[in-house]
Amino acid sequence: MGSAARAEAVAPQTANRPLRAWQQEALDRYEESSPKDFLVTATPGAGKTTFALTLAARLLQRREVARVVVVCPTDHLRLQWADAADRMGIVLDPGLTNAVGPVRAGTQGYVTTYAQVAGKPMLHAARATAVKTLVVLDEVHHAGDGLSWGEAIEEAYGFAARRLCLTGTPFRTKADERIPFVRYEEDSFEGDDGEGGVGLVSRADYTYGYKEALADAVVRPVVFAAYTGTSRWRNSAGEVVAASLSEAGTRSVEMAAWRTALDPGGQWVPHVVAAMDDRITHLRENGMPDAAGLILASDQDDARAYAKIVRRVTGKAPELILSDDPKASKKIERFATGSARIAVCVRMISEGVDVPRAAVLAWMTSYRTPLFFAQAVGRVVRARAPHETATVFLPAVRPLLSLAASMEEQRNHVMPPPKTVQGDELDLDPLPTPEREKDGLPQWEALEADARFAHVLHGGTAHTGDGAPVPVGGEDEEFLGIPGLLTPAQTAELLAKRDEELRLRIAQRHAHDDEDDGLFPVEDHPDEDLLDGAAGRSWRDAAELRREINRLVSRVAARTSQPHAVVHTQLRQAVPGPPSASASVDVLRARRERLRTML
Q1: Alpha-carbon dihedral of residues 519, 524, 528, 531, nearest 10 degrees?
Q2: Do residues 359 and 288 lie in contact, with contact meaning Cβ atoms separated by under 8 Å?
Q3: Do residues 364 and 295 lie in contact, with contact meaning Cβ atoms separated by under 8 Å?
Q4: Tens-place pLDDT, residues 326-337
């Protein structure tokens, strides 16, 4: 079938595919002016691919373009785009390389990656100008002007007939990184430090945010299950430092506590894996029989270690998906369509990858940008049926809790004033890697980290699970009776009740694993006296006291309607001493008794 005949065949297939209201509205807006450039900002899971291919089919049918080129971030997404296009009657070649000059006969275009375009921009320019071409730039934020990819995209497609830019997460970036083919306007800007000025803000031609998608039942509601815990590490001076994830004072201490919690040798990771597995089981038993979870790791070494932990905690091997694995795409596809409970990956599955049955995410990575956060959470929000929910397990650290609380906010691609960028530069990157001194000794060494449920965050409100049951009316009871759906407060109560049981399960697994291969070696802590402040008292005794104190603080906070931080401050004033993370057993016991008198 020739390309013209193929284009004629597109219309009946797309006509039978009902569009969502936002997709139809965006198409209508496009057709009002048939612009050369059009930017659509739509939340992950909303259906940007369907929108783009429907537009492409219409332009092909009317012969306004004769070719479609899709540029996406990864090789796996090339296959995903090609399969989606094929279902809509458009043949796009996902295997066209830079070694091949012309577009293959019998196709209406091809799918490539930003890296391929950067390799030979003039080749892609020739392909895009040989005939009238619609260029679809998927996740266009990858083409920041300060990057070689951005320069190549501008060179390759600067003279294309039509350009459609798609993004799910416009984001703040450096002052000199402008995205090609995106319109910017000056706007006032306020930084996290309260200071601001005039910066540049992108202007989308159509915007469809998470809040709107949630109201339309296009995406699942998300509850964030935050887990705190006490981390202990040794710094470059050989000193043992201890801090709670949720009580760390300075940013540097918080970062070190966070890094220690993510260390595979501690107890934070296996505890959260157990909680995640428990949640998957609940979903599978209550209306989502194929529910699955994703674990995001910071690097491949951690991913491999986490995969071992998953197998030992759950008794089932996860799917391990690494970027340098030639079978990565096949593994993603196998996981998406199979029955495996959990996949462990680094960044392979964080952007654009479609795994609709994934409803649980464990954030075990140090990445903390708004872009990466929204893209990763977007992997578990795609709605397949009414009343499905998504759960994200994450460390109770301020950067992540702030991102979770602002999920429903609209974001544009912002280039703030330079003075603001300097203060926020750290937040654009993952946690700094541990430094080493000239003699090769580490300047940071993880010692131990425990975990405990802190709260569930939903819609900006924290639920600790210790409060009174939430009253519901008749209609609410009927709604809540649908299998698999819990309110955020009920989810918090469930996680809080299961927390101690999970801890016991992990302790048993911990002891068993030590006999197997020493993944979690048990040994006397040489710094016990230093950590607990009293000879003969174990770290685990102090850890249990800290857990009890945190439970009591949650109850006091719920009863007095005060933030947890205020209760902790009052407690330290009443019983002076260091923070709970490094306090002695005697001080912890005194604080526990003080809290009991406050109830």
Answers
A1: 0
A2: yes
A3: yes
A4: 888 888 889 989
Around Cβ 495, how many Cβ atoms within 10 Å?
A: 27
Alpha helices in 34-172 (DSSP H): 48-61, 75-87, 114-119, 121-130, 148-157
This prediction has a pTM of 0.67
Token pair, residue 148, equals 């070689």
Contact 20, 218 (CB under 8 A): yes
Candidates 294, 298, 593, 256; CA nearest to 442 is: 256
pLDDT given at position 451: 85
The answer to whether 252 and 246 are in contact (CB under 8 A) is no
Give the H or E element holding residue 28. Answer: helix 21-33
Nearest to 381 by CA among 400, 402, 358: 358
Q: What is the C-alpha to C-alpha distance for residues 127 and 72, in angstroms, rounded to an integer? A: 17
Q: What is the pLDDT of residue 493?
A: 67
Q: Which of 11, 139, 162, 154 is nearest to 78 (CA)?
A: 139
Tokens encoding 580: 């709970």
CA distances from 529 to 88, 295, 510, 537, 542 (A): 68, 36, 23, 7, 11
The neighbouring-strand residues paired with 199 are 187
d(CA 551, CA 370): 30
Q: Quote the tokens at residue 417.
A: 């004033």
Instruction: Walk me through the domains of the chain, giving residue ranges and CATH numbers.
Output: 3-213 (3.40.50.300), 220-514 (3.40.50.300), 530-597 (no CATH)
Is 461 in contact with 488 (CB distance < 8 Å)? yes
